[in-house]
Amino acid sequence: MAAPFRITPPSGRFVTAGTPPPGDTLKDYLERLIKLIPGEVVGIYLIGVGSIPSELAAVLAVWAAVCFALVVFVRAYGTWEPNVGPQKTAVIVAAVSFVIWVYTMGGPFAAYGLQVQYVGSLAVLVWTFIVPYFYKG
Fold first, then answer.
1. What SS3 class is residue 116?
2. Which of 87, 96, 120, 122 could crosslink 104 through cysteines, CB 3.0-4.6 Å?
3. In this predicted model, what pLDDT tens digit does every residue of 62-97 receive, in sequence order?
4. Residue 6 lies in a domain
């Protein structure tokens, strides 16, 4: 399967100038939602952060940076198509999603005293709900 994380316009059709956009279904919304959340790297991050003592803030920060780089790499590779390249917006959205998830889970933000739990929780709710409405590939 080529470009498994690539976001396509609703119903898989490309919209051309002068034609109305196709109907956006719940299936299209959920597909975009799933593809824009970097769940595979969030899982790796959680396993790694669980083995790092919380007092090692610098190590937590390095681990978060490594996982951030993995998000960018995996999403760029997963949305890349020949002669087109990666979907840059999808990569950026996934990277922002990862940072919001890391902030919510604590890790280096909590270790450095920068985390406000309710802000992270609200950011996850709003970001994951709103972005698939606006970004359609």
1. coil
2. 120
3. 999 999 999 999 999 998 998 889 999 999 999 999
4. no
Question: What is the reported pTM?
Answer: 0.81
Residue 98 buriedness (CB in 10 A; 0-12 / 13-18 / 19+): buried
- Which amino acid, 101? W
Pairwise CA distance, residues 135 & 113, whole Å: 33
Integer Cα distance of 70 and 65 in angstroms: 9
Domain range for 85: 26-134
Q: Establish if 1 belongs to a structural domain.
A: no
With both helix axes pointing from N to C terminus, report the angle between 88-105 and 26-36 in degrees, rounded to the nearest 10: 70
Tokens 């969030």 -> residue:
42
Residue 39, domain member (yes or no):
yes
Choose among 136, 99, 104: nearest CA to 122. Answer: 104
Closest C-alpha to 86, from 3, 10, 1, 16: 3
Sign, Cα dihedral of 87, 81, 27, 124 = negative
